[in-house]
Design a protein that fits this description.
The protein is of the alpha/beta class and 183 residues long. The protein has a single domain, classed as Maf protein, CATH 3.90.950.20. Helix content is 40%, strand content 20%. The protein is built from seven helices and six strands. It has a six-stranded mixed beta sheet, with helices on both faces. β1, α3 and β2 form a beta-alpha-beta unit. The chain is globular, with a radius of gyration of 15 Å.
């Protein structure tokens, strides 16, 4: 597969991402919260995904975020589980724990409850930890719970695809140790 076919719609996002990960010899691990494992499902639906997909964890509770990913109590208490700081710590934490080249995380409010004025339902943070940095971005999705989870998974996979294609249009927020990693 050539790079132009990865950008012109000849393949699904899942297939394009699989090809990029395989071609670059890059490994990936996931830390999911609001998507509940949907991203891992989409990645593992592609035959041969064991060549690049190391592992995924669904850390719905704060305790799981701390125990499995090393997210600090300070981040959870001061910033919240749905924050750029938490998303970055989750991505860095799964990258460190798994030994993968890339750690991708999502955390958000899928609804229908749980939103607030500053973080309404549909607020999602996606983070990517890589050898050259860690990026996080806030998204505001609309729709019902399933819509928000689907948009979260699709956006995270597309964001990762763009990173692998060299289209890093993400603000770098972490350049030193976060969550115990060299991200």
């Amino acid at each position: 597969m050539n790079t132009s076919s990865l950008t012109n719609g000849d393949f699904s996002i899942d297939e394009a991402l699989a090809e990029l990960l395989r071609d670059r010899g890059v490994t990936l691990s996931l830390a999911e919260s609001c998507s509940g494992g949907l991203i891992a499902k989409r990645i593992t639906d592609i035959p041969g995904s064991s060549a690049y997909f190391s592992e995924g964890v669904v850390t719905y509770s704060n305790a799981a975020k701390t125990r499995l990913l090393g997210v600090s109590a300070d981040i959870l208490n001061n910033c919240g589980a749905v924050s750029s700081e938490c998303a970055a710590a989750m991505a860095a934490g799964i990258r460190l724990a798994s030994g993968s080249d890339l750690g991708l995380s999502v955390t958000g409010i899928a609804g229908p409850d749980g939103g607030s004025e500053d973080k309404p339902v549909g607020t999602v943070f996606i983070a990517l930890a890589a050898p050259d940095g860690c990026w996080v971005k806030r998204f505001q999705f609309n729709g019902n719970r399933d819509d928000i989870r689907t948009l979260t998974a699709w956006t995270a996979l597309d964001w990762l695809r763009r990173y692998l294609l060299g289209m890093k249009q993400m603000p770098q927020i972490v350049t030193s140790t976060t969550g115990g990693t060299d991200a």
